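I have a small job for you when you get a moment. Would you make up a two-line entry for one protein for me to read? No commentary is needed, just the two lines. Write everything out right here, beneath this request.
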Amino acid sequence: MSLNKKTSSIWSHFTVIDDTHFAKCDICKRKYSFKTSVTNLKTHLVKSHWIQMSAVQPDENDQLIDDPPSAPTVQSILPSTSTSLATTQTETVLINSDQPSTANTAHNLPIVRKKKPAAITTFVPKKMTFDVQKKIDEGLLKLFTKDFQPFKVVEDEGFKNFVKLLNPAYKISDRHTISKVHIPALYQKSLNETKELLTNESLSGCLTTDCWTSRNNIAFISITYHFIDKQFVLRSVLLGCYEFSESHSGLNLCNTIQETLDKWNIDKKKIILAVSDNANNIKSALNSLKVKSLGCFAHTLNLIVQDALKLQLCLIDKIKCIVTHFRKSSRANHKLNMYQTSNGSKAPKKLMQDISTRWNSTYYMLDRFVELEDAIRVLRPFEEATKAVSGSKYMTASIILVISQGLKNVCEQMARKNFTVEVINVLQQLLSGMNHRDRWGVIENSKTLVRCTFLDPRFKSITLSDSMQQSVKNNVIELTAKIISKDRSSNAPLQEDSNSLPEPVDRDENVVSIWKTIDTKVAQLQPTGTVTSRAIIEVQRYLEDSIINRNCDPLKWWFENKHNYPYLNQLARKMLCALGTSVPCERVFSKAGLLLSDRRCNLSSKKSRNLCKHYNK
């Protein structure tokens, strides 16, 4: 069989190996021989993957056949007395002529074009082409990877009838084919594309990890990787969401993370920061990996606020009881809605219950009680901070120190106002938590966060203390000098090769060269300073440049100014991928919770892993 002619739909599941008579299955990666036909490959798909390959019938279009001109007849010249016959059997075309019209002129005679009789196949539904079938299959898979529907939905009678009405020719796959063939193939495709993306675009990265237990009591661990591509866009990749049946010890967590990094060919040296919750086991695992780690800022903020709210636990419990009463009693809830409507509310609001593990849910619950206005004013800045640091599509590490300083200032200002004793006690407890050495101190002393803030053109060094400003400036100059030195050493062989070419030498001093003037000017413009001096100049120029607006995109600014700061730009791309929270991992689990819903609680961990690949878009 010719390797150049691959028209069979078989080749959408196989890849030829280096112009040989062997092909590799895209699903299971096994090799199979094909010499004269693809029967061997087709048999493998049917037996191993339950894929039935059907031949594609070419479309046949109706054609008009022109009969050759014949001698005119009386019937062809005179108008027909049967209109229906003329409209259904023939089509008359008059040919224009510049000559005068006469009865004997052949050009004035009508030419009859007959339609080809309709074949019996035109009344039979056309078979769907392979490309159309594949395109619809890809759309069907989004029903499971994006909308989290159970596989069994394709066997529901209502759904099958709906699909048949949309396209009678489409043959919908059963749930076994979808779960064992289509989803694994989609997973493998996403895996290969993501690996290629990491190889070509990732200069450095930030790791986040978290653990979670599903409603059917299965433990999972998720690991995400975040980096900045060549276009200075922050990218997020899900490295894995695995079932974790072993004990959650630091050693087991360390081994799982290391195996994941090895699978994706990610060097630990490229990881500038690893973010997780504040659990001791994950801290121990990251320390064993010998990577810089940081506790999730949102989690730390949650602990501080929860400790402060314990002072008002009695009041919060009373509010919980009130909320519970209105949520359980339909009559009371109806009266509450009627009261709001009678007071001019167009959209009556329901009372909200809090969640013990999320302090901001308590805030939303209290927010519905306007009598607690002072308490709401105290908690509002913390709610704003939690929202700001919980993003994964923009830089968050560079705003952590700015937010922490802002929260302290706000609490100190409110502590001087005339609040009730209870509110003042909450404020003092919040300030005490933010001054805690093991919580806030770890964040404020993080060198990675300080570098990220310094390299953020929205803040630079304005939020840092004088001693910290000079320290981080020297550190950035040192890192920039290393980049310059590495760049010059990598370009040195190229310069030697270009200089090794023989150049014409002017033996006679009186000979005048047309290149002499420009060569002299270029030589004078060549940098003569050391790599350190070059780094100092670039960093100082960056600090003297205007600070951009807080609402501007810092990554976009760096991309637009990459030629103004060629070396500092590389350091920014390496450092600014750091995140301040492990929220991306928690978002994976919130989606996984939908995957493992009541209708899908029997889903295996392998299928759950495949479906979680929708995270890498």
